[in-house]
Design goal:
This protein has one helix at about 1-60; strands at about 100-105, 115-125, 130-135, 145, 155-160, 170-180, 185-195, 200-205, 210-215, 220-230, 235-245, 245-250, 255-260, 270-275, 280-290. It has about 290 residues and is of the alpha+beta class. It has 2 domains: about 1-65; about 100-290, Jelly Rolls (Sandwich).
Length: about 290
Amino acid sequence: MKTLVSCVLQKHERRIMGKLTISLLAAVLVGLAGLVACNDKDKDEQQSNASKAVAGQQTATQKPAEKADADEGEEGEEGPATPAAVAAEKPAPQQPPGKQFAYNFDNDTPGQLPAKFHSAKTGGGTQEKWTVTADPTAPSKPNVVAQTSTDQTDYRFPLLISDEGSFQDLDLSVKFKPVSGSVDRAGGLVFRLRDPNNYYIVRANALENNYRLYHVVNGRRSQFAGANLKVTSGEWHELRVETVGNKITCYYDGNKKIEATDDTFKDAGKIGLWTKADSVTHFDDLKVTAK
């Protein structure tokens, strides 16, 4: 009898041990499976992160080609260390508040410079070429004044300077039409000009679609304000600038786009028109009022 009970107990014990062994083996297998899964997940995450890093590098280095903005980042000075020599400006009387001059070029002789203006240039390249010409699209027909030289020297700024007066605080405006140019296609207003190497300039560029305000000191220009906007070639636009003390406000097609302060040129100076490089640009209805 005892032998029978002993045999039964031994069989029961073996069954229990078998079940425990199976449970332990199952637990070990589950643990191993979890460890493998974690390792796979870590590898996947590492590969994903590596892929993202590579993709980021490709995005940074493979941006679609576009025309570089030659004036971006020009908060520092730009231009030759030694400026080209320029002729001294003949003095012009400072105008009292309310005094106004307007130029539509309609009574000037085509093919020549407009009366009461002279041409000049900042920077290098060939001589500028300003001339009165007929334009059937002119805001005030029949004539406009145009800069027609197509010299592609990049740091070259043809100027057309008015000789009638000097202005400190002013309201200055002009209509302009960008016609052509592969290096630049721009037009601008010059004010508080001391000579062709020292002045303020606000200009719009149809190749870059922007509006920029600079001071030019000893032939080197520095941008200190600007805005990005659409400048359409072959169409007339209006540039306008107001100065009161050191405050400068610039408008494009009647909308205020730039407001800045600057103390580079505090005194009265001449006004004029500006282009860059190979820009062929038409101008009409230049107006200035002393404030």
